[in-house]
């Protein structure tokens, strides 16, 4: 019972994290379409999951291997996503393209990216 509750809680936490992070990655002009697309893919995965369980008849460990491979590969791919902490959210597709170009080298990061510092005591943001 403890493992089931813990698994459900952690899966809900990961789902919430994915939804919040996804909204930060898409530019404003296509954010609604992007969220819809990712929601569709997530629901498609939920629909296919019961069929993967049927592969247990082929080999007892096959469903576990498929689920573990999917989890590990998605975690590794998530490491390739850009950091969004203290950065402005993209407003247009050009902003995303500029961010991806500027992340290619560290010298461009200093020139092109605007990183926000925490609010100062007078309430103003400082850009570096």
From TrEMBL:
* Positions of the UniProt region annotated as Disordered: 91-128
Q: How does it sit in the membrane?
A: Multi-pass membrane protein
Show the GO cellular component annotation of the record. Answer: membrane
UniProt main location, coarse:
membrane
Q: Does the keyword Transport apply?
A: no
What InterPro entries does the record point to?
A: MFS_trans_sf (IPR036259)
Q: Where in the cell is it found?
A: Membrane
User: Which keywords accompany this UniProt record?
Assistant: Membrane, Transmembrane, Transmembrane helix
* Comp. bias (Polar residues): 99-109, 119-128
In its UniProt entry, what is this protein called?
A: Organic cation transporter
